[in-house]
Amino acid sequence: MWYDIEMKRVLSSLLVTTMLVSSMPAWADATAAAVSPISKGQTAPYTGVLLSPQALAQIVAQQDTVAAAMQLAVQHQSNIDAAQSQFQIAQQATTCTADKSDLQAQVDDDKKQINTLTVQLKHNTGGLGAPTWIGVGVVGGVALSVLTAFAISKVTK
Amino acid sequence: MSVVWKFLKAHWHAITVVIVIAFSVFWFHHQQTGFAATLSQLNVSHQAEIDKINSDKLLEEQQHAAEQKQLQDSLNEIQANYVAAQAQLQQRQSAEASQIVSKYSTDPNSLANLLASKFGFVVTN
Known about the structure:
The complex is a heterodimer of chains A (about 160) and B (about 120). By secondary structure, chain A is mainly alpha-helical. Among the domains of chain A are: about 55-125; about 130-155. Chain A is about 75% helix and about 0% strand. Chain A is built from 3 helices and 1 strand. The radius of gyration of chain A is 58 Å and the shape is rod-shaped. The model of chain A is unreliable at about 20-25 (pLDDT under 50). Chain B is mainly alpha-helical and about 120 residues long. Chain B has one domain. Chain B contains 2 helices and 1 strand; from the N terminus they run H-H-E. The chains are: A mainly alpha (about 160), B mainly alpha (about 120). Strand 1 (about 35) of chain A pairs parallel with strand 1 of chain B.
């Protein structure tokens, strides 16, 4: 029967040890992300940081509005990007319009030059003009008169 | 008549040369006038082109300046809206914090539960 008593001692020791070990986390595990309500004068269950209700309320309020703040920042940057993109597009459009107008002016000038030079070319290669024929007529008439007079003078000599 | 005839007979070479020279001068003057007119037309056309390009350049610069101003106005408006929204958000935060304080300042258990629910903490006593 002595071993029954010994077994009871062993079991009791094991039971007490198990209870002591398992009761340790009941003091609150300071390594876990824990929060403990505490009243004035009460002993703190672990070393940590005590927040006033105002500080805690501020943290909670910031947490509640962080999504809105983030959305606000994203929207703000998006608006800036949109405005700058619109500015770039407007500038490019203005430059393109000016370039197009410049090129059209050059084309118009080229057409005018072609017309002018074509007229000049026709004038120079299209035969003799009226002033030329007048000059030729005058010279021819004078020459013919001189030759006629010369011939008459030869005949009447 | 005989005097004229004698003169012509004696100087017909010179008279012919004078006539040919006169005709040549007339001819070259006529050609020169034509070329000058052509060059004048080309110059007028080219000047019109230059004026058009300068006008377009001026207009482009004015439009660019207007667009720059419009961009600056837009950015100013965006910044003002952002500042106003931030102030509104800050006001909302302050109101919520005040509400929490007035509601839970004497109830640490509810405060602890509120904090735990927001951040996933474990409430321990």
